[in-house]
């Protein structure tokens, strides 16, 4: 029994090492689109074929990283709202945007999950991702509902917009090398590739104000 426990613990540790390696490489290379299994396993200190013991494919590894990202976002929201009450629309939006901006790989993955990752794993793995992502989402809503003057329905709408904005703006603000070179040649085409965090904050604040304006007329 003790040996089996150690085996399970070792497997969990190696699986986590692979996730950390994938995240580090995504940051270094400029996005998860450039992550491949061979460098991940090398960074994690495993044999190239060893990854198959933990993840069936690169897509499953990245989906696991996205699932972990939901948990990290939930924890960041809880920490950012702990002991706080009466947050108006703009402050509620700021908690959300700040927490997302601190999770760049998660924002990147929010694009890839619906485009490919969920569809390239088996149904049970997709089911587990959905269950854990929705559970984290519901905890985020609960934490914000306690701290904010916004209603739970408004918060859910704001979170839906936040996910879409974070996914899209991250891609725009992290262009491929080809586009980056093109923007250097024609700067006016690169005006959309602005700083990710400030744009996310402004657009989420405007959305939150719009969601609450009709109900209360108070956007502080």
Automatic annotation (TrEMBL):
Residues 36-55 bind DNA. The keyword Magnesium does not apply. Keywords: DNA-binding. Transmembrane segments: none annotated. Residues 12-73 form the HTH tetR-type domain. The keyword Nucleus does not apply. SUPFAM superfamilies: Homeodomain-like. Pfam families: TetR_C_34 (PF17929). This is TetR family transcriptional regulator.
């Amino acid at each position: 029994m003790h040996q089996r426990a150690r085996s399970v613990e070792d497997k969990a540790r190696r699986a986590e090492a692979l996730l950390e390696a994938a995240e580090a490489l995504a940051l270094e290379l400029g996005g998860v689109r450039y992550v491949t299994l061979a460098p991940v396993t090398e960074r994690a200190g495993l044999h190239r074929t060893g990854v198959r013991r933990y993840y069936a494919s690169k897509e499953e590894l990245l989906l696991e990283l996205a699932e972990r990202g939901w948990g990290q976002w939930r924890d960041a929201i809880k920490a950012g709202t702990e002991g706080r009450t009466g947050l108006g629309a703009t402050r509620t939006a700021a908690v959300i945007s700040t927490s997302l901006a601190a999770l760049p790989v998660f924002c990147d993955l929010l694009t890839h999950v619906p485009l490919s990752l969920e569809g390239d794993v088996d149904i049970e793995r997709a089911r587990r991702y959905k269950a854990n992502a929705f559970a984290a989402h519901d905890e985020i809503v609960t934490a914000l509902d306690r701290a904010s003057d916004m209603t739970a329905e408004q918060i859910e709408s704001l979170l839906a917009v936040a996910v879409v904005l974070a996914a899209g703006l991250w891609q725009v603000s992290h262009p491929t090398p080809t586009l980056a070179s093109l923007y250097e040649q024609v700067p006016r085409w690169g005006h959309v590739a602005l700083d990710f965090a400030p744009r996310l904050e402004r657009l989420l604040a405007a959305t939150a104000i719009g969601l609450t304006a009709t109900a209360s007329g108070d956007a502080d």
